[in-house]
Amino acid sequence: MFLRRQLLIASALALTSNARAQSDPWAELRTGAALVLLRHAIAPGTGDPANFAIGDCSTQRNLSAQGIAQAGRIGTPFRENGVAQARVFSSQWCRCLDTAKGLGLGPVEPQPLLNSFFGSPEDGRPQTQALRAWMTGLPPGRPVVLVTHQVNITGLTNIVPASGELLFVTAGAADPLTVIGRVAAE
Predict the structure, then answer these.
(1) Could you give the CA distance from residue 152 to residue 89 in angstroms, rounded to a whole number?
(2) pLDDT of 162-181, one tens digit each?
(3) Which end of the chain has fewer beta carbons closer than 10 Å to its terminal beta carbon, N or C?
């Protein structure tokens, strides 16, 4: 009876530690089982000016000096957790591209599905569905970081992230996506 109880306790501990290891969002990111949604770093204000144009940063709301510094700091926990390189995709908005480059995790690929739909909320649902489908089709392997806007992340997760906040999600059919971890911005 005593031996059986010890075996049950040992089994329960093994299962518990295995579950904890599987729920480590950094480990899930390293294996490609999860990816990161990142809201761009600090860019004071809301929305964009009426003369907004993709590719012309002078017409956009941009990162402040604090936001530029924050973007560089956001890359540090990645490296500290074994992610020195990643596939980095970004909205075409300058504040997202600048955040993505500031991470220092590799080349940045613009992805229009990550663009904000703040100014045209009627595009939100179809764009979110297309983004979810695109995410599920990403090849496994290298870690993936998606730099985007609050409305896009909220559309995928029902969470309103802070500027520079990381959300670890599993890409799949779940609506909203399953969030397995969050790291607050510095």
Answers:
(1) 14
(2) 999 999 999 777 889 999 99
(3) N
SS3 labels along the chain:
CHHHHHHHHHHHHHHHHHHHHHCCHHHHHHHCCCEEEEECCCCCCCCCCCCCCCCCHHHCCCCCHHHHHHHHHHHHHHHHCCCCCCEEEECCCHHHHHHHHHHCCCCEEECHHHCCCCCCHHHHHHHHHHHHHHHHCCCCCCCEEEEECHHHHHHHHCCCCCCCCEEEEECCCCCCCEEEEEECCC
pTM, two decimal places: 0.86
Distance CA 90, CA 99 (A): 9
Residues 6+ apart with CB under 8 A from 36: 29, 143, 144, 145, 146, 166, 167, 168, 169
**Per-residue pLDDT reduced to its tens digit, 82-95:** 999 999 999 999 99
